[in-house]
Amino acid sequence: MEPTNPINLTNPNNPANLANLIKRNPNPSHPILIVDDEEAILLAIDTALEMAGFDNLITCADSRKVMEILSGRIVECMLLDLNMPHIHGERLLDTVNRDHPEIPVIIVTGAVDVETAVRCIKAGAFDYIVKPVEEDRLITAVNRAISFQELKRENLALRQHILGETVEKPDAFRDIITNNKKMMVIFQYIESIARTSQPVLIRGETGVGKELVAKTLHCLSGLKGNFVAVNVAGLDDNVFSDTLFGHVKGAFTGADRARSGLIEQGAGGTLFLDEMGDLNHASQVKLLRLLQEGEYFPLGSDEPRRSDARIVAATNQNLSQLQEEGKFRKDLNYRLRTHRIYIPPLRERLDDIPLLADHFLDLAAQSLDKKRPTPPDALYTLLKSYSFPGNIRELQSMIFDAVSRHKGGVLSLETFKAHMGIGKDEKGAEAAVENPGSKEPLLTFSSRLPTIRQATDLLIQEALARTEGNQSIAARMLGISQQALSKRLKKKE
Fold first, then answer.
1. CATH number belonging to domain 18-148
2. What pLDDT is recorded for position 364?
C-alpha cells in the first residue's frame, strides 16, 4: 500500500514556509540524531523535521560513528535505519540500549514484516517507521519521543525537589507572597516543569494569582522570547483568530496591511491564554491544531506558519466538567493539561493573610502617597474569619479601600467589616461574617450525633480556635453578641 503523504523534496507546493521558522531557542533543547547510510534519506528526513520546526539535528551516514557521537553529547532521540553496512541496525540498537538506555530509538526501515517490528520493539526500540516515510507519521513519532523525554526529566526533577523540600531559585517566586506549605510544593513542581515545552494548565478561583504563576513559569523557563498574555473570554472566532494569528493584507474589508498576531509576538517565548473555559468551539479547533501541529493560519492565508511559543492556559472552571457538558473539546482538554497546576484559594491559605496584608498595606501607602497606617491587633484575626470569594485580589482591594479612607492613627476595622457584610441585627449586635465564596457544607457529622449542648460547645470551641481566642470576632462568626458568648463561657467554667 502506498503512503498517503510521503516526503517529497521536489514538490514546489509544499506549504511549509522556512521563512516562518524564526527560532530563538533550539528545538528540541538536545539534538535529534538521524542515522542512515543513504544520503538521500538523511536529507529527506532532515528537511522534513526542519520544516516541522525541529532545528537541532545531527545526521550520520556511517553506523561506526554512532557510539562516538553519543559519548560526547546528550541526545533527545534517535532515528535509526536497520539495513546498513558495517554495523547492522539491530546490533547497533542493542548497543545503544545497553550504553544509553535513556535515549528513545525510533527504527526507520524498508522492511515491512511484522516479525522485524516485534523483534525491534522487544529489543527496546521506542517506535517503528516503514520507508518511504510519511511526514505525519515521522513527526508524530518524534513528538512522542520528545514528550516522553520531557516527562522523564520532569519526574526526576520533581522527586529531587520533594526530597530537598526547597526551591532552587527563590528569587523567581519573589512576587508571590506566601509561606504556605501547599504553595511551596507547587513552587517545587513549577521548577520541575519550567523548562519543558509542553502545555501547562493553571486552575484556580478568580483572584488567586494565575497570571503571576504563569509569569514565574516563563521566568524559570529560560526562553528568550516575550511573555504575551491574552484573555480569550468573550472573543468570537474571527476576533480570536485575528488577535492570535494575525492577518494578511486584504484578508477582509479594511485590512489594508498585514498584521502579526500575538503568537508571532510570543515567538521563542510564552503565550498565556487566560479564561480558557470560555473559549468558543470554533476557536477550540484552531487552538488544537496549534498544539498538535505547531502551526497556524493567519486570516486570509492558505499557507501555514510555524510557532515555537510555549502555551500556558488558565481557567477558573473545571474543563473536565465542561467537557462532559459538551462545552469543551475532549482532545483539547487532554492537550492543554500535560502539566497541571492548581492554586488553592485564600481560605485554604489563612496563614498567608498576615504576610499578604502587610504587603498590601505597604503598596497602598506607597500608591496613595500616605504614611503606612498601623493595623489594629484584631485585623488579621478578623480577616482570617472571612472566606474571601475574590481571594487575594479581594484582599488587596479591601486594604487599598481602607487605606484610602484612613485619616490617621490606627487603621479602622469598620471598612473591613462593611466589606464583609457585618451589620447590626435588631438587637444592635453585629451579625455573623458571611461566607459567600465557600461551597463546603456548613456541617459534617460522624456516625454519632452530638447533643444540642455538645454541638453548641463544639461550635464555640471552633470559633475561638479560628479567631485565636478573640471573643468579639468569634461572637460575630456565631451570630451572637459578645456578652452572650461570655455568659456561655462562664457557664462552662
1. 3.40.50.2300
2. 94
